[in-house]
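During the second year of the project, the team shifted from modelling isolated chains to modelling whole assemblies. The rationale, set out in the original proposal, was that interfaces cannot be judged from single-chain predictions alone. As a representative example for this report, we include one of the complexes processed in the last quarter. Its constituent sequences, exactly as entered into the pipeline, are reproduced here:
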Amino acid sequence: MPTVERARPLLGTVVAIRVEGCSPIRAHRVIDAAFADVALIQRLMSFQDADSELSRLNRQAAYRLLSVHPHTFAVLRWSLAIAAASCGSFDVSAAHRACGAIGDWRDIALLGPRAVRFRRPLLVDLSGIAKGYAVDLAIAGLRAHGVRRALVNAGGDLRVLGPDAERIALRSHGQSTQLAMLELANGALATSDTHSGVTVSVMARRCLVADALTKVVMADHRAAVRVLRGFGARALRHQSGGGWQELR
Amino acid sequence: MQTRVMLVPLTYLAAAAPVHAAVYLTVAQAQTLMFPGATLTPDFRQLSAEQRQAVEQDSGVHSSANELQVWRASDGGWFILDQVIGKHSPIRYAVALDAQGALRQIEILEYSESYGGEVRLPAWRKQFVGKRRADRVELDQNIRNISGATLSCGHLTQGVRRLLSIHALVLAADANG
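Output from the structure prediction step:
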């Protein structure tokens, strides 16, 4: 059975989906469905798009209770769980706090199965976690369609479905003394960097967790070790000009 | 989750540049996928200097390309092939427009990334000749996956905006005229 791989511009990056072990017709059909899942997450959770559900939350949730899509609710619930576990070093309300908003993640109230209310005006930005969620959703959809081996890669935030290890090279910001290669099976990987020259890669079962934990490691890599352990995740950190180091 | 980490020292290079090059779809495959059951007729053309200027003004996207690789679909839609520069290398992509010129689908056909020091693969690979067996890193194949900070698809978005202008100002005008 051939490998079918396709790519589309989504989530502000290039999202590639590879499926193995299916007939081409079936592979294209399940890939179409997986792209539709990713596009749905983009529509719901884009910070830039004024029509997204997230933008509606940012405009109105401080003033009234809003009912949201289960996906939006799930991402918010994960965001709060990771914020709590990291004592707020992952905070979806932090990036735009300078824009006059004063609250933090603790002001996001999840009520009932799908209802959201902000206790204070907030500008929530899910870009540090929604991409990982989209990758997880695409993988879950592929698995539900009976696909056994697949890879979804949203511009470097990726997840491997199946027990066969996939080899992945890590790209660091700035110069390096080492090349880092990973083998990953049934798991996810996300990489972030900063202009200060630090690159962080996190491996976790879910891509959403890997995606969010890169920011936790970035904030304080020593304190992050405990959080990583709590989520069963591993992390590598790279400083420009040096090598990669696994956090333990 | 099963993971294994391999760290290979770079003895010579200041920066490593894994290269990832992927061909996702051929033109024919993309056409079948985007216009199932339809017949596509090539309708290649050259943009005149005036048309190019009008498109640039309308879309706000500068491009020096005059060649337009367009196919007309039997259902009235359009298949357009285009290329933009990603971070370092070209991205080849196709768009499907419906008969009204609305964007129906985008597919990337070819995409390659190179990172960091912009070292081409053969040179980069040579550095590992002595290391390969000891570190069990198999570099004979093109590296299929790279994880790094997210690349922007901004150029692609601009490219698509330009094609929509081309449709409105050139293709639709010709089809109606």
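Confidence is low (pLDDT under 50) at residues 12-16, 115-142 of chain B. The first strand of chain B starts at residue 2 and ends at 9.
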